[in-house]
User: Fold this.
Amino acid sequence: MSAHPDLAGGRLTIDLGALVANYKLLAKHAHPAKCGAVVKANAYGCGIEQAVPALADAGCETFFVALVEEGIRVRKAAPEARCFVLNGLFSGAEKVIHERGLVPVLNTLIQVERWAAFAKANGAPLPCALQMDSGMRRVGMSPADIERVANQSHLRDHLDIQLFMTHFACADDIGHPKTDVQQEIFEQASTLFPDVPRSAANSAADLQASGLSYDLVRAGVALYGGEALNDVPSPMQPVAILEGRIMQITSGDAGDSVGYGGTETLTRKSRIAYVSVGYADGYLRSSSHMGVPLRAVTQPAVAHFKGHTLKGIGRISMDMCGFDVTDVPEDQISEGDWIELFGTNVAIDDVARAAGTIGYELLTGLGHRYTRTYLESES
Ligand SMILES: *Cc1c(COP(=O)(O)O)cnc(C)c1O
Assistant:
């Protein structure tokens, strides 16, 4: 669903050229490992139907999704590509996964047993990945269960194991000791499957350039222009550009309070531009200026207009939010103009920080009321 350009309060531009450039940079970091793309949650909000063909054209042969239904969309968008389903094998999902040519990531012994039994009944080994928990205590099998799979021929003989994988808890933190510990546990266990390709790296691990890439990288957020590593400048290009349309420019005097709760008091005679984008569009209320309970920082999200950085003012409402435009000359800004909320001038991760969250959450929460425009990749 995408609103008519004249009617929408916000417009979202997805730059597929930037997506492809980011993919190529991540693939270069991964080399000689291959670079796969994680396209769960509708390609981090950017659109599976558009992102997947662009990435496949750029040479991406392997995709990862969370859910089967996302995988079905990937297979339609790139029929030649391989697609792993990260969130495992729910009971009852075997048939559709098989029929749609998807590859389940088996995260528990129960899932391994179920997939092996299904394959046996089917008469041939079926493709899968095995995931081990090497210390994150999230999903995946324990090293002991991995050993059981390796040593039990009634299981292993029915599995075409295409990938042995794990996931790092602290890869965003360069040189974190937990990564070394996990790496050692992973490498040790992987000797049980000498011929199976290995995969452990997300975007952050790929960008760390420290031998974490193994055979296949699972690049996610960095493809979409998000920051993967903490405390280092991101080399990625912005992919999602969000603009809000000015619905009204209002003014107030020093001492006036602004917005719900009257949480912000003007310190000077001000003009405020309201744009027609709010928290119902995924522009988080927690990035409001002042007085949102449970958030320690009081710097609001900023926006951009014709070279001016605009400070958010008052609370973000469901369908609108305000920016201080007092310093923009009156003849340069008017109702109907577009203000950049994030993209090329305002980094999405800076807006996320103002909200006390991460770029991932803003991307995956991108609203459904925007006009969506896709800039095609040149390559
Ligand atoms: C989401 C996910 C990724 C991608 O992580 P990014 O930090 O977005 O690069 C990789 N592997 C697994 C298992 C994931 O769930």
About this structure: Residues 107 and 140 are 4 Å apart (CA to CA). The first strand starts at residue 10 and ends at 15. The chain is about 30% helix and 25% strand.
